[in-house]
Design a protein that fits this description.
Elements (H helix, E strand, L loop, with lengths): L8 E6 L22 E7 L3 E2 L5 E2 L8 E4 L5 E5 L2 E7 L3 E5 L3
Antiparallel strand pairs: 1-2, 1-7, 2-5, 3-4, 5-8, 6-7
């Protein structure tokens, strides 16, 4: 199934966090929180302002982003967990070194 977000919405897939700490301690599934980092899968065309002009989104497909803990709506696409959120809910884009 192909999903195309509308307006300033972003479709992303959560990036799984490490199951082991730096000290070697394994974190059980019951103690894990949902990751706040994701990979952008698709981006809508942008937000329409009051004057009728469209503002292009700052993120693009393939970007790794950080988002708020309680942001967005969880959905399943082809059996995989995804998240749809507004561009305003994205806190930062992670730059590659």
């Amino acid at each position: 199934m192909k999903v195309r977000p509308l307006q300033d919405r972003i479709l992303l897939k959560r990036v799984e966090e490490e199951t082991k700490t730096k000290g070697g301690i394994i974190i059980p599934d019951t103690a894990k929180e949902k990751p706040q980092e994701g990979l952008v899968v698709a981006v809508g065309p942008g937000k329409v302002t009051d004057s009728g002009t469209r503002v292009a989104p700052e993120v693009k497909a393939g970007d790794r982003v950080l988002f708020g803990k309680y942001s967005g709506t969880d959905i399943k696409i082809d059996g995989e967990e995804h998240l749809i959120l507004r561009e305003d809910d994205v806190l930062a884009v992670i730059q590659k070194k």
